[in-house]
Structure formats: structure tokens, C-alpha cells
Amino acid sequence: KREYSDIKVEQNKFYQSKQWKSIRDVVRRRDNFLCQYCKAHNRVRTGKIVDHIVPVEFDLNGKTVMDNLAFCCSKCHTRKTKWEQIYYGTGYGNKTKNVIPIKNVKDVPDFQKNER
Asked: Are the C-beta atoms of 97 and 88 separated by less than 8 Å?
């Protein structure tokens, strides 16, 4: 059984809240259900996930900021999470780093450029 920190417990509560579900629905419609990371690199793919561009673990203040949210596909979300662990130092067992937050999906690396 995975142990959660108090921060993770609070994050999970937030993701089950009416507030998050409402915000998530607005972002889905705003982004036309298309992955914004793919779109930034001239690909068209539908998404499934509303992602925090700057991770909440790095900047808690951005968790409900609409400009910090983007709809994305599961492939981009998985790869972006791995990138965040390196760039921001987020994730289990890591320590966050003092880096400049990347706030625009166009500035996030193209995770799929070598797959074409």
C-alpha cells in the first residue's frame, strides 16, 4: 500500500471537489477537447486529462488558475510528468528545485518529436 504525505492527501481531496470538477469541465470545453501540448507542436490529438502547466507541487497558488491549466492526451501527460520530475524536482522522494516556472505549453519540450 502506497503511503501518502499530508500534501498528497490534500491534493486528492481537491481533485475530488466540486470546484475542481467545474474548473476541469470549463478547461475541456475551452481547449475543444484537444491536447494543447500536441497542438503547440502542430499535431492534432484528443485529450483526456486537465493538466497543470506549472505543477501544483511546485506552485500551490496555480492550482485553480485557468491560465495554468491545459487539456492534454495521456501520452503527453505521462511524459510531461517525467520531465517535471527532472526540471522541477517534483514527484515522490524528490526535492523541488529553484527554477523558473515554464508557464506556456509552447515552451514545454516536444516529448514526441522523435516518434514521427
From this structure: yes
Is 27 part of any domain? yes
- Does a structural domain hold residue 116? no
Cell numbers given for 82:
517525467
Look at residue 77 and tell me if it is in a domain.
Answer: yes
Ranges of the chain whose pLDDT falls below 50:
1, 116
Please give the residue range of the domain that contains residue 78. Answer: 6-99
Report which DSSP code applies to 52: E
Asked if residue 43 is part of any domain, the answer here is yes
Whole-model pTM: value is 0.88
Q: Which residue, among 6, 13, 106, 97, has the nearest Cα to 55 in the 3D structure?
A: 97
Q: What nine digits make up the cell of 100?
A: 523558473
> Grid coordinates standing for 28?
475541456
